[in-house]
Amino acid sequence: MRLTPKDIREKSFNVVPVGYSRKAVRTFLEEVADFVKEVIRENNQLRDELSRKDREIEELMAEAKAFREALRKLDEFSETIKAQAEAEARKIVEEAEKEAKALEEDIERLWKMREKIRLDLRSLLLSYLEHLEERVGDRGSSQGGASQSPPSTGSEED
């Protein structure tokens, strides 16, 4: 059975010839009623505070859940970005390697072309030299004497 301050105040006792002072009992009951009233008030305040704290905990738990979800999504996003960046880097490296190979092939082709042009030019110059020597030789024989040929240097330069 629950006692309320009102129950305590309105409690009556049978009167007996030997017993306690009615005034002392009434005073004590008033004090007990006031104390119980205060305990009930504090209990209600604590329940209200507990209820507020429970709501705060629920809100914090919801925020924590949302925060964890945001972190999870951020982690997924960062992994996606990282994978895209790695793929892009691989693509750039592959393109750079292709360009480098193409440049090396171009350089090799240009060196071969240079060598061919150098040899062709040398051949052309030698043929001009032979032609000049023939012409100088033809002039010398037509002028009645020994052919004059240019002095030889001993080696041909490139």
TrEMBL record:
Residues 140-158 have a biased composition (Low complexity). Its main location: cytoplasm. It is found in: Cytoplasm. GO terms for cellular component: cytoplasm. Gene3D superfamilies: 6.10.250.660. It comes from Thermosulfurimonas dismutans. Residues 29-113 form a coiled coil. Belongs to the DivIVA family. This is Cell division initiation protein DivIVA. The keyword Acetylation does not apply. It comes from the Bacteria. GO terms for biological process: cell division. Keywords: Cell cycle, Cell division, Coiled coil, Cytoplasm. Residues 135-158 are annotated as: Disordered.
